[in-house]
UniProtKB/TrEMBL annotation:
GO terms for molecular function: DNA-binding transcription factor activity. PROSITE patterns: HTH_RRF2_1, HTH_RRF2_2. The lineage of its organism: Bacteria, Bacillati, Bacillota, Bacilli, Bacillales. This is Rrf2 family protein. It comes from the Bacteria. InterPro entries: TR_Rrf2-type_CS, Tscrpt_reg_Rrf2, WH-like_DNA-bd_sf, WH_DNA-bd_sf. One of its GO terms (cellular component) is cytosol. NCBIfam families: rrf2_super. Pfam families: Rrf2.
Length: 163
C-alpha cells in the first residue's frame, strides 16, 4: 500500500493556507513554485481538494485557493480521501471460490471472507487514526519540529504573494 505523493503535497500546501487571511487566497503558481513542482500537477490536486470541499477556488487575477473549512475540521483522512478516492485499499477478489474444496462442494464457506474482514478492520483503524490528526494539529506540530526562521520565512513568502 502506498499513497501518491499528491497526498504529501496537498498536506504541505494546505498548511500554507492556514495563515492566509479569510479574505485572501494563495495562487497555485506560488504554491507550486514554493514546492518546486509543476502548476499543472498541483492544479490537479487542488481540483480534487476543491471538489471535496476542503478548499475554495477564488477566480481572477489575484485568485487562488483558500481553506473552505477551519483547520480543526480538516483531517489527514479528508485529504487522503480527496486525493486518492474512497475505495478500500484491500480489494477482495474472492479467490477462495477457486480453491479445491469449494469446487468440489465439500466445504460450505461463510458468507464473509475472514481475510477480507481483517484487512477492512485494519484499514478502519488506520482511517480512525488519520481522522484524529487535523491541519490544526499539523500546524502546531510544525512549530515544534521546524525552526522559527523557517516558519516565519514560509509565512512571509506567502503573505507577500511572492511578488
Amino acid at each position: 500500500m502506498q499513497y501518491s505523493v499528491g497526498v504529501e503535497y496537498a498536506l504541505h500546501c494546505l498548511v500554507y493556507l492556514i495563515d492566509a487571511p479569510s479574505t485572501e487566497s494563495i495562487g497555485i503558481k506560488d504554491l507550486a513554485e514554493f514546492q518546486g513542482l509543476s502548476e499543472t500537477f498541483l492544479s490537479k490536486i487542488f481540483s480534487k481538494l476543491s471538489k471535496a470541499g476542503i478548499v475554495n477556488s477564488v477566480p481572477g487575477v489575484k485568485g487562488g485557493y483558500r481553506l473552505a473549512k477551519s483547520p480543526e475540521d480538516i483531517s489527514f483522512w479528508d485529504v487522503v480521501e480527496a486525493v486518492e478516492g474512497a475505495k478500500p485499499i484491500f480489494q477482495c477478489k474472492n479467490i477462495k471460490d477457486n480453491g479445491y474444496l469449494y469446487k468440489e462442494g465439500c466445504c460450505s464457506a461463510p458468507s464473509s471472507c475472514t481475510i477480507n474482514l481483517v484487512m477492512l478492520s485494519g484499514e478502519e483503524k488506520m482511517r480512525d487514526y488519520l481522522r484524529s490528526k487535523t491541519l490544526s494539529w499539523l500546524n502546531e506540530e510544525l512549530n515544534h519540529v521546524l525552526s522559527k526562521q523557517i516558519r516565519e520565512g514560509t509565512r512571509e513568502y506567502f503573505s507577500k504573494g511572492n511578488q
